[in-house]
Amino acid sequence: MKDKRERSWVVGITGASGSIYGVRLIETLLSLGYHVHLVISNAGWRVLKEELGWQVVNREEMLQQRFAAYPDRVTYHAIGDIGASIASGSYLVEGMIIMPCSMGTLSSVAHGSSDNLMARAADVMLKESRPLVLVPRETPLHAIHLDNMLTLSRLGVKIVPAMPAFYFHPKSIDDMVDFLVGKVLDCLRIEHQLFTRWGDSSAEQ
What we know:
- This protein has a single domain, classed as Flavin prenyltransferase-like (Rossmann fold, 3-Layer(aba) Sandwich), CATH 3.40.50.1950.
- The protein has a six-stranded parallel sheet, with helices on both faces.
- Helices cover about 40% and strands about 15% of the residues.
- Helix 1 links the parallel strand 1 (about 10-15) and strand 2 (about 35-40).
- The chain contains seven helices and six strands, in the order βαβααββααβαβα.
- It is of the alpha/beta class and about 200 residues long.
- The protein is globular and about 45 Å long.
């Protein structure tokens, strides 16, 4: 019997700099036909305001307006809603991406604290052996940060630092954002056309 379940990804946005990465990821997943379960930390909302100018009075209404081209395809979950669907392993999603991922959230995931919905949802991905990608955005890194990343990497988590490349000659910030989002999608085996790959004729010009 054919599975008619809508394919969904969980996306987390934390208070690390680089909220534009998470927003572009959501837009891309939606454009590819996926449903997105979205969790934004309180610090993440602040960074969305400071970096992207989001003036938020009602969070759900703001998201409906921002992603109006994809009605009913974004489900927002409050960070404190531990009873949300994505907090249970019995709720089926394809996997989860936290982009950008703060060092505090990375630590919570590495140590299984599950003290909010974002960390709990990530813990579900680990226990159910589903794809989990973290995009840390911090510099410089100290030994605790590196140890936590190593712990997660050994568990099969993909660590994709927010490091844009320049071999494809980016002409704008959007180009660099798309490159990183594309690298995340590569980790998830999701086809995209966000950047020119090394070896393509256009990249060598």
